[in-house]
Amino acid sequence: MIPDLTAYDHRVVLITGGLGFIGSNLAMRLSASSGVEVRIVDSLHPACGGDPRNLDGIARPAQVHTFDLRESARLRGILPGVDVIFNLAGQVSHIDSMREPLQDLGANAEAHLSLLEGCRAVNPGARIVYSSTRQSYGRPQRLPVDEDHPIHPLDINGVNKYAGELYHRIYHKAHGLETCSLRLTNTYGPRQLIRHASQGVIGWFIHQILCGEEIVLFGDGKQLRDLTYVDCVVDALLLAGVHPHAAGKVYNLASGMPIALVDLVKLMITVYGKGSYRFAHFPEERRKIDIGDYYGSFSRIQEELGWSPAVSLREGIRRTLDFFERRRSIYLET
Ligand SMILES: NC(=O)c1ccc[n+]([C@@H]2O[C@H](COP(=O)([O-])OP(=O)(O)OC[C@H]3O[C@@H](n4cnc5c(N)ncnc54)[C@H](O)[C@@H]3O)[C@@H](O)[C@H]2O)c1
User: Fold this and answer.
1) Which atom of ligand 1 is nearest to the CA of 89?
2) Is residue 260 within 8 Å of residue 222, measured between CB atoms?
């Protein structure tokens, strides 16, 4: 279901991490409605995907605040009056979480306690939608992975993101805050960070194909992945932000169309019209935290909120490559 933006009329929305990939796509969508006021808070952490240029072309400017969620006094200054918070701030890179675990702890756990404490103090009535991750499941014990699958993260990011999710759950149960968590899987699309390889394999494939480089697949390339196009993730966020049944819930997002990485690369090459790939030895640093095959079930969110992914993989890739092709100077610069 494509959410009806009129549900946000006369509402104030705060997007944490709103200059990043998913947050900016959400801000762009909301800006199409004249009835909604959008506030953004983003630290523009250099390791993350935030960039003010992600809002280029926005229909109506958002109110942008550049600071870290852990700056609680400044945060409490912008929370009053907010109806819905999309809590998307975070550090996405699994590799960086292993290299800089304390930095990951700050961005993915402490920052969210700061937000929740701020809400408890000055705005306990706001709905908060948190972007959690499938990474917390670790290596799947069964497929497709549903929300009741055991949590066994293989990396620091999966632990800290899950801590963030648990904080949201505890603030719902203990303090009555209206929190909801969406466990995102690999998200791709316009405005994602493709400058370097830290934020994951999909962005790096896009980089390599646009730069005319041979795409490098680690291992045999047969690992199954579950990709959702960013507009579909924005649909889910918007539904969770207003749906009466979403408070206190955890939902998986998934595509329903798992694909092996090698087939994804072949599809990208077909859609782009050129490109090549080769296989390479799995670097030990990455192999140790690789989750193997993964795909999830989105039955719960489909039944309860009416969400299902609306954009096919082929169409999503076409739109993504087209977006970056037209903005090479911004997104491919190093
Ligand atoms: N992209 C994916 O495939 C994916 C998958 C699962 C979960 N997620 C989650 O979705 C959220 C958004 O991811 P994204 O891909 O848009 O990442 P991104 O790096 O593009 O955006 C994250 C933004 O958060 C900001 N930020 C980080 N720490 C902050 C802090 N303490 N205070 C204020 N701002 C801070 C960064 O500056 C950045 O602009 C993240 O929380 C991530 O863990 C993303």
Assistant:
1) 24
2) yes
Cα(322) to centroid of ligand 1, in Å?
Answer: 23
Max CA-CA distance within the chain? 55
Q: What is the reported pTM?
A: 0.98
Q: What is the pLDDT of residue 206?
A: 97
* Domains, the chain, with CATH or none: 5-189+226-257+296-311 (3.40.50.720)
- Residue-wise pLDDT tens digits, 297-326: 999 999 999 999 999 999 999 999 999 999
Q: Tell whether the model's pLDDT for residue 334 goes beyond 80.
A: no
> Looking at residue 217, what is its pLDDT?
96
The CB density around residue 126, as the number of other CB atoms within 10 Å, is 21
| 278 alpha carbon – ligand 1 mean position (Å) | 30
User: Which residue is listed with tokens 């993101």?
Assistant: 161
Atom 41 of ligand 1, nearest CA residue: 90
CA 293 to ligand 1 centroid distance, Å: 24
Q: What is the C-alpha to C-alpha distance for residues 31 and 221, in angstroms, rounded to an integer?
A: 39
